[in-house]
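User: I'm curious whether this sequence folds into something compact or stays loose and floppy. Could you predict its structure so I can see for myself?
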Amino acid sequence: MIWLSYSIKEQIRITDMYTLFEVRYDNGYAFPGETHNFWECLYVIDGEVCASGNERVYNLSQGSIIFHKPLELHKFIVNGSDGADLLIFSFTAEGPLTAFLEEKVFQLSGSQREILSAMLSFIRPRADNNSVSPTAQPYLEPFLTSPTYSQTVAIYLQLLMLSLAETGSVSSVSDAPDAVTFRRAISYLNSNIHRQPSVPELARFCNVSESGIKRIFDKYAGIGIHKYLLKLKVKTAAELLQKGESVSSVAEKLGFNSQSYFSRAFRRETGLMPSSLK
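Assistant: Here's the prediction. I'll summarize afterward.
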């Protein structure tokens, strides 16, 4: 008898974890905008959150999960009257499914929520929640001592992502006036990434006051307009460098005064030297 083999086409594999924790925040808590060169997800266990990823703004409720791809500027504000319980995790992943997860928010089904509940039930009794270190990651500390623990956590998360690719319900962006203006502003900055648009110029384009556009960036980005533009430049620079462009060419193309200033800014924002991406 001849046996046929069926190859397994791996769609996603989590290779590293950086954070994994549960947290409760009161109404009004604002997480300042940040970027990093790995994925981050925020899952709303309970409550309501307004989250942004680059120019996109979403209103999240119980059962919502948002995926932030590497180098995406992300921020959130807790706007539920009773606060919010959140699960936050960040990771590096490989495989074709990563492209599907980019720039998406999902409303989890009952079975998809059960995957995360089962993961938390597995994690909680094994984590050292009595650690006194302010930088401790109790849910990740067993990674150092138990290979089966780390792989089990990765399997739960991979199972969730595979399920989302099959039956995920994608949420739409917010249509609130400030959110629409924010998207319009980011589009303008991206279209003028090669130079340094001023705050008055951006405000005129969006048909709002200077104070109004600053307030909107503080609300959805957590940083000022010039700082946000720098992060957009760094993000674009990373994409150009990965396509094979030289450091000097990218610095000139994005309007930096010098290659050395560009390299310093890139390293400050990403932790990497530009040449490492070539």
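Summary: The radius of gyration is 21 Å. DSSP finds nine helices and ten strands in the chain.
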